[in-house]
Design brief:
Elements: E1 16-18, E2 21-23, E3 29-33, H1 40-52, E4 57-59, H2 77-90, E5 93-97, H3 104-110, E6 113-116, H4 124-131, E7 137-140, H5 147-159, E8 165-169, H6 187-194, E9 199-201, H7 203-207, H8 210-223, E10 227-231, H9 249-265
Parallel strand pairs: 3-4, 3-10, 4-5, 5-6, 6-7, 7-8, 8-9, 9-10
Antiparallel strand pairs: 1-2
Bound molecules: phosphoenolpyruvate (PEP) and manganese (II) ion.
Amino acid sequence: MKGLKLAVENKAKNIIKVKDAVIGGSELVLMAGPCAVESKEQLLLTAQALKELGVKILRGGAFKPRTSPYSFLGLGQQGLELLKEVADDTGMAVVTEVMDPNEVQLVAEYADILQIGSRNMQNFPLLQAVGKINKPILLKRGLAATLSEWLFAAEYILAAGNNQIILCERGIRTFETYTRNTVDLSIVPIIQSKTSFPIIVDPSHATGIRELVLPVSKGAVAIGADGLMIEVHPNPAEALCDGEQSLTPTEFAELLKEIKPICAAVGKTIS
Ligand code: PEP
Ligand code: MN
């Protein structure tokens, strides 16, 4: 792709280690947890259930990019503190979103992986700011980003000095409105053939519909994704954010059971 210097330079897979998790290796990495951190009880209940199921990376938003300013915008620093506390209790690693270049240092004090959300994929000062830290970055695909725009966003992070990048396909906006987004699974082998970045798939935001999380996860694993990011909430009906696409821990356990044979078929292990 014309103009890219670093993102397509090295074709050997860039393996990223975070606590007990290895991203980009032979294990299917699982990142799971609520859309937003709501309370200690909610987070701890979720994390304990996920840890039991072998999940090594806990997700949860403290700073939430919401379409409406009147929606729950997250607990902010208190949410970060809860994430760290619960992750330390359970021995998990944390991935959480950062939205503001001025908050990168703060989020990095609490998180093991910093997430750049879809809406901020082309927030260039933010990309430069996370490029200057020494922590892995989960770069989600923009709402309507082409492959090239996505890789140029990654290039910003690389150019600033950080090569620990994990990409996340979370669906793109198309004319189809039945699903929240349209998942582009073909991007997985494209990324894998052109770049060294591990790539995971987020079937929760890709579909917006709980019942579609399992089938899309199956497809993602079958096509060779390095991992999955899935929203799990102890009581989705009461969730302050994205309840309609969240699985209960029991449904998540069922999902793991169903994807196991697919992992085996594509030569991946799963804990
Ligand atoms: C999220 O993962 O919490 C999120 C907001 O996702 P996205 O940026 O993909 O919409
Ligand atoms: Mn969400």
